[in-house]
Amino acid sequence: MKIPQGYPHHILLTSCAPLVCKLHKSIYGLKQASRSWFNKFSTTLTSQGFNQSKYDHTLFTQGTNSTFIAILVYVDDIVIASPNLATITSVKDMLHQYFKLKDLGDLKFFLSLELSKSKSRIFMCQRHYTFSILEDCGMLACKPSIVPMEASLKLHAESSVKLSDPGVYRRLIGRLLYLTISRPDISYTIHKLSQFVSDPHSGHMDAAHMLLRYLKHTTSQGILFKANSDTKIHVYVDADWGSYVDSRRSTTGYCVFFGNSLVSWKAKRQNTVSKSSVEAEYRSLASISTELTWLRNLLIDFNIHIPYATIYYDNQAAIYIASNPTYHERTKHLEIDLHYVREQVDKGALKLIRVRKHHQLVDIFTKSLPRTVFLNILSKLGVENIFLPS
Predict the structure, then answer these.
(1) Is the terminal CB of the chain with fewer CB neighbours within 10 Å at N or C?
(2) For the residues of 64-116, what is the DSSP string, one character each?
(3) Tens-place pLDDT, residues 212-249
(4) With bands split at pLDDT 50, 70 and 90, how would you rate the model's confidence at 59?
(5) 376 inside domain
(6) Concatenated DSSP letters for 319-334?
(7) Domain Reverse transcriptase Ty1/copia-type: where (predicted)?
(8) End-to-end alpha-carbon separation of the chain, Å?
(9) Cα separation of 293 and 283, whole Å?
(10) 70-112 per-position pLDDT tens digit
(11) CA 100/CA 107 separation, integer angstroms
(12) What pLDDT score was predicted for residue 156?
């Protein structure tokens, strides 16, 4: 920054003490600017009768039924959604009174997300973002792969030669992580590859290149949200015990459906080593319990009240532990916060139902799968490519 024009410089030259300029308001480029902008924007919306969500502070809602409207803010990018076009127009007119805005029309792009919508569905993908990754990596002409990772592949911390420039691997994984927003099919692979960003080896980069070959095959793949879905929440959750060969920690995986649409998913390494498969499974139950509490509370902002969520699980022992608050020799060492799942079951907020192993959809988030199994599960998750010729 420089001294504004017109300020008498002789004062600075003759002053014995160092002088600084004090800003009376935030300006673009300062680290406080985005915070100040959001405070101003949120204050304006709340003064106009909008309710700021307690579960996502960037979400503002107002009205019910046909007059319901939601505003989502990310820095200076704003999305307005409502079943009533007149309501949207009214809110835009109100915002124009307070701010200088550029109206981009119907939502088609948002933070690298591409959206295509009709009365019966919404399709979300990151096609252009995927193309940019492939182009920057020189993989546009690569041979496509049907799966993101070989089913037999076991990645180790030091299984090959160190990369001469680890920054290349780290930048690639960082970009691929953002791609998982709309690509649950690559979540597990990215989850595994991201474990080695601190010390990547050539074997890890080879696995990353195979993922890029899979992206070449599925460039336009994304999530399909159907309008005719019901308003129930059902979940598939599982754990892969001791799947990390270096640390022997387990992997938690889950996928959450709102009606028939996939809305949340995760593949994550557990924080501690589990002494048994039942313990690993119970830890995964505790993980999804907190996610479901947040999701059910968030839906209340949309005037949708979900009395309970149904969890489909393939481990009967873990279901017994969650449903029967009794002393168990093998689980007495578990942290108290893990028993949050018991509290939710007792309240009726969660219903646990056993599902057969071959019906478990969450395997795609806990392990690398053979081609036929991978594609079969993928078809049930709502991951599609509407740009392919029918």
Answers:
(1) C
(2) -GGG-EEEEEETTEEEEE-S-HHHHHHHHHHHHHHS------S--EETTEEEE
(3) 999 999 999 999 998 877 889 999 999 888 777 677 88
(4) very high
(5) no
(6) HHHHH-----GGGTTS
(7) 20-150
(8) 57
(9) 16
(10) 999 998 899 999 999 999 999 999 999 999 999 999 999 999 9
(11) 19
(12) 84
Could you tell me if 193 and 91 lie in one domain?
no
Phi then psi for residue 225, to 5 deg, are -105, 120
Query: What percentage of the chain carries pLDDT values higher than 70?
Result: 92
In one-letter notation, the amino acid at residue 330 is R
CA 299, 75, 224, 294 torsion-angle sign: negative
Average pLDDT, the chain: 88
Q: Which of 121-125, 204-208, 214-218, 321-325 has the lowest mean pLDDT?
A: 321-325
User: Looking at 217, 239, 268, which one is the last position of a domain?
Assistant: 217
**Three-class secondary structure of residue 156 per DSSP:** coil
- Tell me the helices (H) and strands (E) count for the chain, helix number first: 11, 14
At 193, which amino acid appears?
L
For the four alpha carbons of 221, 223, 227 and 232, in that order, the dihedral sign comes to: positive
> Is residue 245 domain-shared with residue 191, that is, in the same domain?
no
Total domain count for the chain? 3
Pairing verdict, β 77-81 and 51-52: unpaired
C-alpha–C-alpha distance, residues 19 and 10, integer Å: 12
Sign of the alpha-carbon torsion through 224, 225, 228, 230:
positive
How many Cβ atoms are within 10 Å of 19's Cβ, its own excluded?
9
Distance CA 202, CA 166 (A): 10
What range defines the domain where residue 195 resides? 135-217
Q: Is 93 exposed, middle or buried (0-12, 13-18, 19+ CB in 10 A)?
A: exposed
pLDDT digits (tens, 9 = 90+) for 244-277: 767 788 889 999 999 999 999 999 988 888 877 8
Domain end marker among 124, 158, 176: 124
**Burial class, 382, CB count within 10 angstroms (exposed 0-12 / middle 13-18 / buried 19+):** buried
pLDDT of residue 115: 93
**Residue in 180, 284, 186, 187 with CA at minimum distance from that of residue 236:** 284
When pLDDT is cut at 50, 70 and 90, the band that residue 10 belongs to is: low
CATH number, domain containing residue 235:
3.30.420.10
The phi and psi torsions of 359 (rounded to 5 degrees) equal -100, 5
For 301-324, what is the mean pLDDT?
86
R_g (Cα) of the chain, nearest Å: 25
- pTM of the complete model: 0.87
